[in-house]
């Protein structure tokens, strides 16, 4: 009779038997408790990798890793062939049967546990990512600083493709986009992780297993819109050109999308984006919208990345919706996505003229000047209307701004305003980004 009951439970992989207590006694040091503002030293990164992939994908990590400021490790399944810029550790073994311990997903899921057990001092957050995740660490700090690190938090983002969210969970932080676990939550996970992994051995990925174990502790996902899993195919341009009013925290799956800038490699594209980010981290790809009332043009700026000029008036509600320059991750379909997207018109006269970042420079210590040059693909049809030709005559756009105060992310979010400055040149448009005045809208 007992055998029959046992068989009934294990015949369906989503059913499980409650195991005996597998809790591990772990002390919780008080070093994480402090009133000081959160900074990069309070974060420990756990980068999931393997010896097979690390040599190539570590190029992505090298773009953002600062050995003088960042703490953490790349967690590998063996010793790498050569020493890297990023410190590494070889993952240990979990305590459980082979079916729940042998997969790479289990090894990755245990990174937060192994990182916690290192006993590093003054840790507030454990941040997980993949070896092809690019973090924008200053913005990550701005996001985490909003939350009380003495509470149990699980922070991240969903997939862009609905098919992925439905297959895994809308309540799960997708791991490639990165997610953050507060110290108190990590302390609780250490106690339950290995037993929990046995119960969810049938799950696909490490992020899904971590979510399941956190769910057992009753902690929900806190969503932040700057974590980007990039479960998309094709061009990420549409998403980056109309980013939500939130700090850019991470990018992922960069081998699976086209280079972010035309005529550049993936790595060189990211280097250029990082160059702008290091000049004004808070403002990177933040959208501003303004209008040339005399010529009835609409302008959308994604600072440090691209400018779009329309030779007609477009509402702000349309400009903030990304162009669908991409397809879904698994089925390569035209949606659905977890956000609104608008189609790219087949008629070139209804498309904007596009400019990409050319260069960035600091002005004194508080200001910036960025330049963007016009781009037309070789096989792209160009509108032959006269009003469109006047926009095409603008070969370069120059944008000036004050550096964005990181403390603005601690307040209610608001897109900043911009205004077109008349410099008397037909081939160069000058634009200034600034804080909006009280009661100001893009049409006033």
UniProtKB/TrEMBL annotation:
It comes from the Eukaryota. InterPro entries: DUF604. It holds the Pfam family DUF604. PANTHER family: FRINGE-RELATED. This is Beta-1,3-N-acetylglucosaminyltransferase lunatic fringe. It comes from Cucurbita argyrosperma subsp. sororia. The lineage of its organism: Eukaryota, Viridiplantae, Streptophyta, Embryophyta, Tracheophyta.
């Amino acid at each position: 009779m007992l055998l029959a009951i046992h068989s009934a439970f294990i015949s369906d992989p989503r059913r499980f038997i409650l195991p005996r207590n597998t809790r591990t006694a772990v002390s919780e040091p008080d070093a994480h408790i402090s009133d000081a503002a959160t900074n990069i030293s309070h974060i420990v990164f756990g980068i999931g990798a393997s010896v097979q992939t690390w040599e190539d994908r570590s190029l992505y990590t090298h773009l953002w890793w600062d050995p003088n400021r960042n703490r953490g490790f790349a967690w590998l399944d063996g010793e790498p062939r050569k020493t890297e810029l990023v410190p590494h550790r070889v993952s240990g073994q979990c305590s459980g049967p082979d079916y729940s311990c042998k997969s790479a997903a289990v090894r990755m899921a245990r990174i937060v546990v192994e990182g916690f057990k290192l006993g590093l001092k003054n840790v507030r957050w454990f941040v997980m990512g993949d070896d092809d995740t690019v973090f924008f660490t200053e913005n990550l700090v701005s996001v985490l600083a909003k939350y009380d690190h003495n509470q149990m938090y699980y922070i991240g983002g969903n997939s862009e493709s609905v098919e992925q969210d439905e297959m895994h969970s809308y309540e799960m932080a997708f791991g490639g986009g990165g997610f953050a676990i507060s110290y108190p939550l990590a302390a609780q996970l250490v106690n339950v992780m290995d037993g929990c992994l046995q119960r969810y051995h049938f799950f696909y990925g490490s992020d899904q297993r971590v979510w399941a174990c956190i769910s057992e502790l009753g902690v929900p996902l806190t969503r932040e819109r700057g974590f980007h899993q990039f479960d998309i195919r094709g061009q990420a341009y549409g998403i980056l050109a109309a980013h939500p009013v939130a700090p850019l925290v991470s990018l992922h799956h960069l081998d699976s999308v086209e280079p972010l800038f035309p005529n550049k490699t993936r790595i060189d594209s990211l280097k250029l984006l990082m160059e702008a980010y290091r000049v004004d981290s808070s403002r990177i790809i933040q959208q501003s919208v303004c209008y040339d009332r005399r010529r009835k043009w609409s302008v959308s700026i994604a600072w440090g990345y691209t400018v779009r000029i329309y030779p007609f008036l477009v509402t702000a509600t349309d400009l903030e919706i990304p162009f669908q320059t991409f397809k879904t991750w698994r089925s390569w379909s035209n949606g659905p996505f977890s956000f609104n997207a608008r189609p790219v018109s087949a008629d070139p006269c209804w498309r904007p003229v596009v400019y990409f970042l050319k260069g960035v420079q600091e002005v004194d210590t508080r200001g910036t000047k960025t330049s963007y040059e016009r781009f037309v693909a070789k096989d792209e049809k160009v509108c032959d209307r006269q009003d469109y030709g006047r926009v095409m005559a603008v070969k370069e756009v120059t944008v000036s701004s004050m550096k964005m105060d990181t403390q603005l992310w601690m307040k209610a979010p608001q897109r900043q305003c911009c205004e077109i400055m008349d410099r008397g040149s037909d081939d160069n448009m000058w634009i200034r980004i600034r804080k909006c005045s009280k009661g100001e809208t893009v049409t006033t």
